[in-house]
């Protein structure tokens, strides 16, 4: 049986790939648990300096695997357990102290949006469709989507996307801030970005992602204190000292 999520490491890049292509990489319990485990493993591996997140097959992620709970004797309990596991995986991705780039293609729907936005930069293929999806099956958001979408797109655009429940094209997603780039080959572009981060100061990139992601949830005085503390810690590291010397020697 194939792994629901794979993690491969090469040249400082940890590549996490959703691996249920026959099911559009929809989220079942196996995928949710495996994704969380892969995120933790990438975080613990000192050889991983940047993370690339992608999906195998024709689509990045089709959201929750409806078939896995639709015929359940207790769909509410089963869906609650799945949502908790999937949210744990997204939180593990968000907690990484290393930069993350997400490459998406085909379709991104439902909980797939939350997984996608756990990355710091999203690169989309031309022709990708972004679908909120939840109202169409009488459900509500999970995987942190209700937080990530307003922070990424702005509240009005997020509400319009969610409540109209109409797909966004890749270009519309870029214009509305949902993705950073639209390219012909998102995986190649994402690999290039991750490789560049891996060659640079991974720790500085990782701390920067932490500061920017936490900014909206903290008072301004707290964010300033956190920035100053982080800056002070980084300045004393051998890596920063070497980069200082390199910069001053130009």
Automatic annotation (TrEMBL):
Q: Where is the composition biased (Basic and acidic residues)?
A: 215-232
Supply the InterPro entries for this chain.
ClpP/crotonase-like_dom_sf, Enoyl-CoA_hydra/iso
Annotated GO molecular function terms are: isomerase activity
Keywords attached to this Swiss-Prot or TrEMBL record, sorted alphabetically, are: Isomerase
Renumbered residue ranges of the record's region Disordered? 215-235
Origin, by domain of life?
Bacteria
Know the name of this protein?
2-(1,2-epoxy-1,2-dihydrophenyl)acetyl-CoA isomerase
For the keyword Mitochondrion, the answer is no
Is Transmembrane helix included in the keywords of this UniProt record? no
Species source reads Janibacter cremeus
Enzyme Commission no: 5.3.3.18
Known Pfam families for this protein? ECH_1
